[in-house]
Design brief:
heterodimer; A: mainly beta; Jelly Rolls; 2 domains; 8-stranded antiparallel sheet; 4-stranded antiparallel sheet; globular; B: alpha+beta; 3-stranded antiparallel sheet; 18% strand; flat
């Protein structure tokens, strides 16, 4: 696995990674900024085998990694994961800081124009595949913008673009 | 154009593995006397044996060329009379070096856009 980019937004990290074809890597899903609560599959497919103990029996298999899918990994918190690929796999992880923070994520696919209002919690717009605009400002892939409580933003996503709206519960 | 022989000697349906032997007209031994190489068929977008052979042809061509080179090392060359030999020739045209990219990647320079 290659980490191509990682940004600490404050409250969570978004981390872009790439797994090559026929790669298999272990991961202990725990720690502030390291616990993968959510992962978005930018492209490719993968399969994860989950163990409660290192080298223990497989207790869960997740065949839910395919292009365009947002995967809830909260059921693997504190467990050992072995993620394997057949073809290449590009992922964007969302890791809360501290790990006890519970992130909520909405994936928005273009083409769409959407007004997003933050009430009592900040909403962070993470551009996954750009370019998109937020209040007429351009966001390219892996850039983000914060919508603070009481504020709103108009998002314009052209065709084939994707962004994530991230907030904490 | 030189020819190469490719022979599938074993298959394993469970792992989608195909074992292949290869040789050329320069090979020093019969094709069956050489070690085989394994290919994972699922790494290639193929449906038939012929499509598979076509897909691995470039790779096998390189393998056999390298093996032939080892088996048939270049013969010694008589350099008598080369000393002092001088000619003027056209320079080989190299491609112009690409202009350096000066546009930074936004996400790496400034990850946050202030609204």
């Amino acid at each position: 696995m290659i980490i191509t980019n990682a940004v600490n937004v404050g409250g969570f990290i978004y981390c872009a990674t790439y797994l090559s074809p026929n790669e298999s890597g272990p991961y202990y899903n725990s720690g502030d900024g390291h616990y993968h609560q959510w992962v978005y599959v930018i492209s490719g497919t993968g399969r994860a085998e989950i163990r409660d103990e290192e080298n223990g029996l497989i207790t869960l298999t997740k065949d839910v990694f395919w292009t365009g899918k947002i995967v809830d990994k909260s059921d693997t918190k504190g467990k050992y994961s072995q993620l394997s690929t057949v073809e290449g796999l590009s992922l964007l992880f969302f890791n809360p800081i501290p790990e006890t923070t519970d992130l909520t994520i909405e994936i928005v696919h273009g083409p769409i124009t959407k007004i997003v209002s933050a009430e009592d919690k900040r909403i962070t717009v993470v551009c996954i595949t750009g370019p998109i605009t937020a209040n007429n400002k351009n966001l390219t892939g892996l850039q983000h913008a914060k919508i603070f409580p009481g504020k709103s933003a108009t998002l314009i996503l052209p065709e084939n673009t994707v962004c994530a709206l991230v907030s904490s519960k | 154009m030189s020819k190469i022989n490719i022979k599938i000697v074993e298959v394993d349906q469970d792992s989608h593995t195909v074992i292949v032997k290869y040789a050329s007209e320069k090979s020093q031994k019969p094709i069956d006397d050489y070690p085989a190489v394994a290919f994972q068929v699922t790494n290639y977008n193929v449906a038939t044996a012929d499509e598979f052979i076509e897909a691995i042809r470039p790779q096998v061509s390189l393998y056999v060329w390298q093996r032939d080179l080892q088996e048939n090392p270049a013969k010694s060359v008589d350099l008598t009379g080369w000393e002092g030999h001088a000619v003027e020739v056209d320079a080989y045209e190299l491609p112009e070096p690409a202009a350096p990219s000066v546009s930074p990647i936004n996400a790496f320079v400034n990850a946050e856009v202030t609204l």
